[in-house]
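Q: Got a minute? One more chain.
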Amino acid sequence: MYQAKKVRMKRLFRRGKCLDVAIDHGVCNEPGFLDGLEDMGKVVGQLVDAGPDAIQMNFGQSDLLQEIEGKEKPALVMRVDLGNPYNADRHRVMWAQLQNDQEPLLPALQMDAACVVVNLFMLPDEPDLFRQCVNNISRIRNDCDKYGLPLMIEPLVMQDNSIRGGYMVDGDREKIVTLVRLARELGADIIKADPTANAEDFHEVVETARCPVLVRGGGKEDLRTVFTKARQLLDQGAMGMVYGRNIYQHENPRQVVRSFMAMIHDGASAEQAWDIYHSEK
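A: Always. Here it is, folded:
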């Protein structure tokens, strides 16, 4: 099934790069993540009109994308797991599991997804959660090869919950590089990685991955700052972005998408991206 995986990778990485807009936040069970996603049909319509390379969704909402006619619509990236590390309060038991326990890849195959994505959580003092993630990846990796589905692994190194009221990203270069290496060892075809605290270190993440690296966006920030960081990370070798709240929670998601597409595919600067964002209201 190598050829099938290669074909799907080409669907995802148009012109060799990819902007994947993540709107799979419903499984995080965190109310703040849903701001801007109240009307999923409207959001999907806006995003399809904006024309990113891919939209990342869960099975239960993916029909909103796949029932839209036209061969030029974005590819579907389907999340196949869920967990509870995103809430502000620490849970008594931390867990991560596949959404379909019996046949984890069946929903993605039924909905003609171009790729599946799964988490690799590394939280302080939570070895059982880490092991669950490794088990999840191990369960689906061989089936991804069998059915020709690219596997995107999302390595997440997080700070202790008590530091900032919720598990926040730890931008430590060494920790990120080490976990990305593990994701590659587990068989990742694509890695969705957090940015390093110093963007100039991100090339080490890319070199370690030995497969396409997409940058994870995280929480909503000032848009001009986001464009500046994105340009720096692309210059370090990232092949694109997986951004959610930094797109759908802004005033004009369509123009944010077009700004990112210009940066990723056409080499636009942060200033040019800012101008694109303001070129239409």
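A: The longest strand covers residues 115-122.
Q: Perfect, thanks.
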